[in-house]
Amino acid sequence: MTANAAAHTEPGHAPETKFAQLRRLLTSPELAFLMEAHDGLSAKIVAETGFQGIWASGLSMSAALGVRDSNEASWTQVLEVLEFMSDATRIPILVDGDTGWGNFNNMRRAVHKLCQRGIAGICIEDKLFPKTNSFLGEAQPLADIDEFCGKIKAGKDSQTDPDFSIVARIEALISGWGLDEALRRAEAYHAAGADAVLIHSKKADADEVLEFTREWAGRCPVVIVPTKYYKTPTQAYRDAGVSVAIWANHNLRGAIAAMRDVSSRIYRDQNLAGVEPEIATVADVFDLAGNSELAAAEKRYLPANKLSARAVVLAASRGAGLAEMTTDRPKCMIDVRGEPLLRRLTRTLNGAGIRDVTVVRGYAKQAINLPSIRTVDNDLFATTGEAASLACATEDIRGDCVIAYGDILFRQYYLDLLLAAEEDLVIAVDALWQARRSEADNWVRDFVSCSRPFSGDYLDDEPVHLLRMANDVDTAATDGEWIGLARLSARGSEIVREELTAMQADASLLRASTLDLFSRLVDKGHTVRVIYVPGQWMDIDDAADLLAAGKFV
Ligand code: SPV
Ligand code: MG
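That is the input. Now the predicted structure with magnesium ion docked in place:
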């Protein structure tokens, strides 16, 4: 449904257009209300409150733009504001068109443009351009009746929707001409084709307005603006057969009072704590802006692999055999060419579009102090394994999720390959595992055997699956080495969460490694897709080696 169509649709019928909605409000026997708005946000608030229509006040739009209500904002600038208001809402807008922004010719073009942008009607007042607000000064000169009637006719002849409405606003009472002149003008404007007349008054009581409605006797719909005679009970307008009452500037005035209050309190306090509980939350702002719709649209239209994948990085362990390098930091914070390894890893993740990175800390956790990561702690790191660390981040294992050891570096495109895979559980496996060398005494490697060895054939894109992952796979049965990088789809994340819960339940969680976790998943019949990669990765054992060899500073 376009924003131009009404929310309420009878089955089998086209939705009521905004033009038809406003026309219905004007012509129905019920008293209807238009509430002032002056931008997209206030228009949304008017609509969500339940009002059936919006008064796009000239005074308010001008004030919100920081200018006077004297045609200082050009009509196309007003049109821009109206477009935002209309796009933001499904209820009709009656725009305060001042004097029609010029003569009959300007009126023609304005009406044409308003129809194009789904603005349901225009109200024009019988004064002279540039207009002055009705509540300023006395005895403002009125437009020549015939000239004004020509403007109404030109507008009606230019509307491209049959239900577009023109409301003719009579300023005779405000200018001190009295009831007869007001009625004479009303008659002429009605005859010229106005869909309604607006009788304006700046008296503190509604007497002259009600006198007008009595004499007018419903010849066409009557609109009123009770700004100055606000004390009159609304029932009086119903009794008088008024069609529409306009609450003309109260959102603007409310906003001014609220903004002044908030500004002055923050200025005085030099702190936000005082105002925070009393103002709209940021979440409320997102709601009003419609962010949930955008999130749903992203699911529909963005490639799934670019969709807010997150990462959980396992960085709780100190690292065996790295004694002097890890007295005050875990191995992931060892400097690799002037930068902690974990910072490089985070940058690689960010580079693949992964912003939400959760790092599981344990040993020397205070040393993991990088910006833009979230941390969770495995305080039992000394006696537990990787699965227990992973379980500490259960909350973050959701949606598309990358799991990485905290002490690895790899080519960024490996992540792209993993994220592009369709399977729920995917791991990166080094096919060139035999080429790796280390001086480390207790070099522990995550060997895997797979459904097929790496073939190197360009045309061979048959998927490969994990059969076994362990530190002690026979060389003959080894097809590669897991590089410590896995990717879970939304379903894969569920599977892993469920398995961690099962491991908790059978008391195997505390001691288990990620290898144990993957082995259990394979044993339970889950398919773990293997993506072979050609080396070009390292873990901290290598870093230690290279450091020893003087290749890193
Ligand atoms: C406006 O809201 O800009 C109006 C109504 O024209 S009033 O200010 O009451 O004249
Ligand atoms: Mg106005």
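The first helix runs from residue 18 to 27.
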